[in-house]
Amino acid sequence: MDTKFSVALHILTMISESKEVLSSQSLATSVGTNASYIRKVIALLKNADLLTSRQGKSGYELSKTAKEISLLEIYYATQEVNTISLFQIHQHANRECIVGKHIEKAMFPIFSDAERLLENQLSKQTLDDVIHNLYQEVGQNRI
Question: What pTM does this model have?
């Protein structure tokens, strides 16, 4: 898995909590990457209707409140998928081998259960939970 999901959480948190208009460069500085990568992640978030920007104005806004944006929505947007698929099963097992012939079906229920649990957890958590955790980490109440 790549880092787009965590970068998106960083970006969305900053946009949600900043009183200033944030450019892709200022977001990149905070994330520790370059502005072009930030713009790619922002494009994914905009395509998923999680962020908006206005023609002729700089900066971005959340399309809905932080409490209304689930982490699962952000995951789907950044990974460009409709389901979680963390574990890939190798494709060229030897079908003449007893293990090679059956290993895929042996692993599948374990992998799919783990993916379903993650999907369920992410659907219950919101961007607001991340923001709340951030303020707890900083040791201050929300503004």
Answer: 0.86
